[in-house]
């Protein structure tokens, strides 16, 4: 929640951020944004309120910016030096697979009761089922920019700067899961 708060403050200032969180019935996070776990219902509520307040396009941009801040936080605080060393030296496909495995081991921290899976075949795709961001939301396009930004930030910084993450399908559009592709420049493989 801290990264959404910071993104809101960067875009709208402290006053509008406070008003937004009060209207969202989530003002408790303003005084203690990192205290304890964020409840799934609150994750859903914040994304719903972003869309209702700022429209889908702007909400997606804010979610992307918050995801970038989350990736920066993880890079600074949660990725071990040995893992960083290994990821930079393996072929890109192997590094992505290893990082997805590591992420999968800690998926509960960002998908809560949702399910995180991935597949590595000709292409690399990861999935989030029962995604807390999408609960109760219906949209005409994918809305999980927060997750796409986190993964892209991690992959670009830890593996290779040409990596791009794109959401292919979204539960908010009625898809069975939120699915994301991971691509990179073939010349960098």
Question: Can you put this structure into words, describing what you see?
Answer:
Helices cover 56% and strands 13% of the residues. The chain is globular. It is built from 7 helices and 4 strands. A 4-stranded antiparallel sheet has the order 1-2-4-3, covered by helices on one side. The protein has a single domain, classed as H-NOX domain (Alpha-Beta Complex). With 189 residues, the protein is an alpha+beta fold.
Topology:
Layout: H1 2-23, H2 28-31, H3 40-77, H4 81-89, H5 92-105, H6 108-111, E1 115-120, E2 124-129, H7 145-158, E3 164-169, E4 178-183
Antiparallel strand pairs: 1-2, 2-4, 3-4
Helix pairs in contact: 1-3, 3-7, 4-5
Which descriptors would you attach to this protein?
alpha+beta; H-NOX domain; 13% strand
Q: What is the CATH architecture assignment? A: Alpha-Beta Complex
Average of the residue pLDDT scores: 93
Order of helices and strands: HHHHHHEEHEE
Largest sheet: 4 strands, antiparallel
Helix coverage percent of residues? 55-70%
- What's the domain count? 1
| Beta fraction | 5-15%
N-C termini distance: 35 Å
Radius of gyration: 17 Å
CATH topology: H-NOX domain
Shape designation = globular
The structural class is alpha+beta
Spatial ordering of strands, largest sheet: 1-2-4-3
**Low-confidence regions:** none
Number of DSSP helical runs: 7
Number of strands: 4
